[in-house]
Amino acid sequence: MKKGFHKIGKTLGISLLCGLLLSFSLPFSLADAAGSALLVTPPRFAPVAEGYSQPEAQPVVLQNTGSAVLTNLDVSVSGDSFLLQKPEGAIWLFGGVTSEDYLLQPKAGLPEGSYAAEITVTYGQGQAETAVAAFEVGPAGSVPDQPEGGYTEPVAGVPEKDAPQNLAELRAADPKQVAKLSRFDSRNYGIVPPVRDQGDTNLCWCYAPITASEISIHRSGIDPGADPGSLRLSPELLAQARHSRGPDPLGNTKGETTGVGDYLHAPGSVSLTPSLFSGWCAPVKVGEGNSANTYEASAYRLSTAEQVYTYGMQPAAAIAETKRAIAKYGAATASYNNLRETKYYNPRGESGSASSPHACTIIGWDDTIPAELFSPKGASQNGGWLVKNSYSSLPYFWLSYDNAIDSNTWAFSYEAKEKYEYNYFYDCSAEDFGLAASMKVTIGANVFQAKKGTEERPEYLEAVQAAYQGGSDAVFEVKVYTELTDPAEPESGTPAFGKAVVSETLERPGYYTVTLPQKVELKKDSYFSIVVTVKGSGSPVLRLSQDSSPGSYRARDGVYSKQQQAIRVKGFTTLGEKEEVLPTPTPTPTPTPTLTPTPTPTPAPTPSLTPNPTPTPTPTPEQSPTPIPTSKPVPEPTPVPVPTPDLPPEPDPSPLPTPSVRFRDVKESDYYYEAVCWAAEQGIAAGTGKTTFSPNAPCTRGQMAAFLWRAAGTPKPTAVSCGFTDLREGEYYYNAVLWAVERGITAGTSPKTFSPEAPCTRGQMAAFLYRYSGSPKPGGSQPFSDVPGSAYYSDAVKWAVQNGITSGTSKTAFSPEAPCTRGQMAAFLYRLLKQ
After folding, report:
1. How far is 37 from 466, CA to CA, in rounded Å?
2. Highest-confidence range of 280-289, 406-415, 441-450, by mean pLDDT?
3. Which of 359, 548, 735, 821 has the fewest CB atoms within 10 Å, i.e. is most exposed?
């Protein structure tokens, strides 16, 4: 409407000006217009579904095709199915002038059928012109198709030939390569949940990110037990948490109450979602939790919230980035004007300025849709986005590339809730501080007091999350200081790593979680600081919230000063067991000969306890931080934490006499009892305390390397350094990892990372033991249905079963992605080395 009345003012201004000129120059009256002609062009309305939103009002175009001035203009419409909006004041049309000041609109809620109205325009001394406007309402729950010409829409469920053909291929593909496809549809991979209708609520801003979150969870596979038909996260609880949240569990924030009671109809923005989710207030499954306990009821933990589009971004770049985000996360959010949706929709082709922003979820694209196919007036380019809506009347449709590029375009990724137990933060407000960009905080620190942990179960800082805005391709540099001598001086404590932790390059602004290279022990009641520096192109800055922070600081020229607004920097911690450090343990002599250390990197040690083990060829790693002329195994993939299955007790092949080593958490009735005692006596595995072994705790990859290294007699590795950036010289597993890489036992989780603190999965365990034993080729078939023949650990699992090292978690399952516990690892080593 604003556009229409702007034109009214412009027309009146021209009319008055020209009228004054004509009063001095024309010899005839303005009423003498009998010889002129008027052309009336009615709007062309695209069809909509029964009971759906009424189309935006469109102009009735009046054009003076003659030279005389037309006066006494009046427009009327027949019937009661259309609404006509008239401008205030008289409108005069001079020769050649076009007017669009009369707006026509079909009424809302019309039942299925066709509607027409005659538009009558009178002018001058009774002259009249007529035109007909038509409008169609389709069946309930659908929208009539637009004429498609030669275009053929892709079939949902059938991937394009050049696209990944299944979910496993999609997970393995490079998102940047997938983004180059001309067509993509996330529905082809079984990760898109059914459409849910938001009803009469205003919660599209919640439905869109919740849907994108569900799709991302299925896309990543972080929850093997979830599927699109059963996982339902609650948009309503997200809206409630936005307006009413109590203090966080650690007491660092007081929460937030906005005073909005009817949160179901309150407006919102998708951009509120990452600030809420990063505080662990959501997502919550349907039927669980409320505003007071959403911290505990949350089903997952936000890992990444990527802001796909920022203001000033070129349209072509925005389209490319949105495609990449969809390929990487499975979906992205967006907003558009939903006053008159159709199967192929382009709101930018509509007239008038009335708008109704609607948040939606984009799950694919098609570059081949002809521009002229989009209604109501075509598009400026071919192609559009596949939109998953929150209205059942139009569940899916195509939105032109002219649209859906705004600051509410976000994509999300998550981690298992159990990965971290606590979240230290001060930024409770869902709203960002409006002056954050101008304040230019590029080095910020949050100081916290450690609240948890005991002597037996210390608290460890394992990851840091920080958020930035502005720019692109930013890099976080993270420093951690413990036991601060002055809480007002973030760097007054002991540096955790001796140097900054540099994360990967962060392509788009947003929230990112950086896993520390090693966990940092926090002494209860002591103060620690997290210092984050952000730098990159486009002058990125740290995000700030509206909260007044008790412990946020900014640094300028090396000097810290109190920051009034809370910096969005968080610390994720867990309670765990600490591995006792054994610098160079010496195996205790036993009647049975121990393994002889291998003097050269070529032969691999044999697990058989004989004085002269037979050398076997060492496997060649595909990726090795310290290249040497040995064979290389396939690198282990980054482990994904999942619930640990219970391993049924198995009889030990050769029980020991009464053990001399005792742990109070290892009972004689436990299947791993004698194995744990044997490992401790041999100096292979130390406890996590003087009287504890923590048999049910996950065995980390660093511990696994140390166990094998000690079993081999702690041979000195040839290399003195490695290419893994997450290993620090002096750690108990440092030489063990160097040795394991040289022997082809492991190649790390990537060319530059070993992930020593990550849980060692059962599949990785089998591969370690198998390569340690020389990789003998097993015969027979694979007994477990969850071990694919193409998996890097397939032969290792067959070998382990055939040699009595493991019998699986059931008759048909091995659970290769489940973490291997310390008790299981002791049992596996015992069965291998004592057979």
Report:
1. 67
2. 441-450
3. 548
To the nearest 10 degrees (0 to 180), the angle between helices 315-329 and 204-220 is 60
Tell me the angle at which helices 673-681 and 822-833 cross, rounded to the nearest 10 degrees: 70
DSSP 8-state code for residue 658: S
For the record, the structure tokens of 717 come out as: 């590795």
- Angstrom distance (rounded) from CA 789 to CA 728: 36
Q: Please write the tens of the pLDDT for every residue from 584-605.
A: 333 434 344 444 443 434 333 4
Is beta strand 501-502 parallel, antiparallel or unpaired with respect to 410-416? Answer: unpaired
What are the Cα distances from residue 621, in Å, to 456, 614, 626, 740, 744? 38, 21, 10, 11, 6
Pairing between strand 396-400 and 344-345?
parallel
pLDDT in tens, 219-239: 999 998 899 989 999 999 999
Q: Which of 571, 308, 540, 543 is closest to 465 using CA atoms?
A: 571
Is-contact 747 732, C-beta < 8 A? no
Return the exposure string of 692-726: e unless at least 16 CB atoms fall within 10 Å of the residue's CB, then b: bbbbebbbbbbbbbbbbbbbbbbbebebeebbbeb
pLDDT at 539 over 60: yes
Q: Give the three-state DSSP class for 633.
A: coil
Separation between Cα atoms, residue 157 and residue 272, nearest integer Å: 33
Alpha carbon distance 284, 238 (integer Å): 8
Residue 473 backbone class (left: φ over 0; alpha: ψ -120 to 50; beta: rest): left
Q: Residue holding tokens 């015992």?
A: 830
Beta-bridged to residue 498, according to DSSP, are: none
Nearest 5°: phi and psi at 169?
Answer: -70, -35
Taking the chain, what is the end-to-end CA distance rounded to the nearest angstrom?
85
Whether the model pTM is above 0.70: no
Q: What is the tens place of the pLDDT at every residue in 477-536? A: 999 999 999 999 999 999 998 778 888 788 899 999 999 988 899 999 999 999 999 999
Q: Tokens representing 422? A: 């606590």
Return the closest-CA partner of residue 444 out of 548, 547, 553: 553
Q: What is the DSSP letter of 119?
A: E
| SS3 per-residue string spanning 36-81 | CCEEEECCCCCCEECCCCCCCCEEEEEEECCCCCECCCEEEECCCC
Distance CA 560, CA 478 (A): 16
Residue 651: cis peptide before it, omega within 30 degrees of 0: no
Q: Which of 241, 233, 304 is nearest to 274 (CA)?
A: 304
Task: Indicate the SS3 state at residue 425.
Answer: coil
pLDDT value at residue 698 = 86
